[in-house]
UniProtKB/TrEMBL annotation:
The keyword Lyase does not apply. GO terms for molecular function: dioxygenase activity; ferrous iron binding. Keywords: Aromatic hydrocarbons catabolism, Dioxygenase, Iron, Metal-binding, Oxidoreductase. This is Extradiol dioxygenase. Belongs to the extradiol ring-cleavage dioxygenase family. It is an enzyme of class 1 (oxidoreductase). Its EC number is 1.13.11.-. Residues 5-122, 141-254 form the VOC domain.
Amino acid sequence: MGIRKLGYVGLDVADLDGWTDLLGRTLGVGVTHEKYGTDELALAEIDEFKYRLALYRSTEDRPRELGWIVDSPWELDRLTQRLTGAGFAVADGSSEEKELRGATQLRWFTDPVGYRVELAVGEAKVRLGVDRPARGPGVTGLGHFVLASPKLRELRELYESVLEFKLTDYRAPGLFFFRCNRTHHSIALAHADTTSIHHLEFEHGSIDDVGRAYDRAKANDVPISINLGRHMNDKAISFYIRNPSGFHLEIGCGGIEVGDDWIPHDFGRSDEWGHHHAAANPFASPRS
């Protein structure tokens, strides 16, 4: 497979200071502030690479780019051919965009719901390690995101048929989990009446790290939108918080890995235990 992992997410955010406070005080994630042209942005230092989450100060909240890391220039060319053959217009990223991403090559296209999707070759390591809260590694990486849209069929065609993600499992008829490596899923696609990122997940090193983040969220009055629980399909233990842009951040650990012999299946109910929603669960009864 040409795509190796989820590389980064860029967001336009109306409350950059609120995001910075959430990342620092509750999640223990350092933030570097930079100028990008005339834009002010904050780069979240999740691991030793340049960034995994870029936050651009804006007047509205919306996804700016979704970035996938590609194995090699040859795979980038191959995927470009598959995309153009499927009717997508693929463009090269600018030199400034490549420098910001830490990429040696960068191409992008617009997906069926209007989001900019990027394919990058290369990542830039800019630090030996990351300062974390005491007593644990805390956040260790960017895990996955869930994209909900009325254009579920078109999104499945893009990720499964064109970009060659593999279906791991699903809840019929409207929620599907896909992988691009051994991790259970790097993206999930769901039906919804309007398009949005339902949640973005930050991987943590242990259940103790998740628990300490849970305590800090409560102490800092961060809204917990879905309480602690274990998912049925990937077995991850997690909780969710409502971020300043209005969607969920999942704080989790312990998701399983799967191999090529894995058989996709309907995993039935959503959770082994917990994960009680503060508001109505849009995926309680997925629709086609």
